[in-house]
Amino acid sequence: MSDVSRREALRLMMAAGAGASTCKPDAAPKDTSAAPEAGPASVAESRGPVVQKVERLRAAPPWKTRDPFLFCVHHDDAYPQGNEQFGPDDSLAGRRLGMDFAGKDGWRMYHGRVVPGFPQHPHRGFETVTVVRRGLLDHADSLGAAARYGEGDVQWLTAGKGILHAEMFPLLDREEANPVELFQIWLNLPARDKMVEPHFTMLWSPDIPRVTEHDDAGKSIVLTIEAGAYKTHHPPAPPPHSYASRPEADIAIWTIELEPGARWTIPAAKLGTDRTLYFFRGSELTAAAQKVSSGHQLELRGDREVTLVNGPAMSELLLLQGRPIGEPVVKQGPFVMNTRAEIQQALVDYRRTQFGGWPWDRNDPVHGPTPERFARHATGKHEKPT
Predict the structure, then answer these.
(1) Distance CA 205, CA 219 (A)
(2) First to last CA, the chain
(3) All structural domains of the chain
(4) Gap between the Cα atoms of 210 and 205, Å rounded
(5) Distances (CA, A) of 368 to 136, 138, 283, 373
(6) What is the pTM of this model?
């Protein structure tokens, strides 16, 4: 998992004149070197336990991740009805506006002051994968692109050499509650791709495979495949320079729902692939005969299948899988590079160019009152979910 602080990233960007920021890991910036690139495992290694480690999910986000993933956070907010400005129709008294992460009344403004979310902030050197399970998210960026997506959609953004973007949660319903639930995942880029042109791809909900299976007792398992493949099911392709676009990377991002008592086996992946399974909702389950309660994460061998047997409540899990990139990782705030010199250059470039500048008239743009989802790319291409 990335060890960079959300607060440090905000401080960095405010010092550089950016304003508020988003999705920053939670410890002070430091240099970390990843393990050497994974090679073929020995026969003895392949016989090791399939569940390598079990530990509690962090009480405060983000969750711990492993190479090639840098960061994973689960936002789950029970927002009230909205007001005429698309913010919460409720008092904001007692909130630390600009840095509201406490969860008062079951929701947060994050870095937003009027609309919840993350006003404009920079990224370089990695990708953000934003999986919106409920609610809507408004994207705007320094290339002039915009999108409104949610209700199962995924945005996959390759930041590459640098981009500013905003991620706001417009509360459109003025009569009913506006719940928002999403994962944001940071996926590293290999050195050769860290300075590619920024690009985002929309994975619209109707195009994302949702596979329902039943075990021998008729219990249901629902698998949503945001990345990777399961049997004959393939999601839309990630951006062209994504690490996930390389078959050898063996990237998978799956969400898994298990009916009470359901039994399901995660199939084996490639040799050298790592997996982390986040058990974020439910009561208990067993994984490879090891009992685990909700609120834990499991590090798994990727080259071994693992059978899950759910407990007495519906369970939900997130699977992150990939072959380690195995390159040095140096992180500071919203920048992830391979050397300290590259981080310093990122700071210089950002302060000099603002990664193209901000073409919007506010730092927290929202895209109007209608709930229709869309994407308008910098190339002029327009798209909507089918």
Answers:
(1) 25
(2) 35
(3) 6-38+46-364 (2.60.120.10)
(4) 9
(5) 12, 10, 40, 11
(6) 0.89
Separation between Cα atoms, residue 186 and residue 334, nearest integer Å: 11
What tokens were used for 95? 């909130």
> Can you read off the two tokens belonging to residue 162?
């640098």
Angstrom distance (rounded) from CA 234 to CA 208: 8
Question: Residue 112 is encoded by which pair of tokens?
Answer: 């937003």
| H helices present in 16-134, as ranges | 43-46
CA-CA distance, 301 to 299, in Å (whole number)?
7
Length of the chain: 386
Q: What is the pLDDT along the chain (386 residues), one digit of tens a residue?
A: 333 334 444 444 443 333 333 343 333 333 333 333 334 343 334 567 999 999 999 988 899 999 999 999 999 999 999 999 999 999 999 999 999 999 999 999 999 999 999 999 999 999 999 999 999 999 999 999 999 999 999 999 999 999 999 999 999 999 999 999 999 999 999 999 999 999 999 999 999 999 999 999 999 999 999 999 999 999 999 999 999 999 999 999 999 999 999 999 999 999 999 999 999 999 999 999 999 999 999 999 999 999 999 999 999 999 999 999 999 999 999 999 999 999 999 999 999 999 999 999 999 999 999 999 999 999 999 999 98
**248 Cβ partners below 8 Å, 6+ apart?**
270, 323
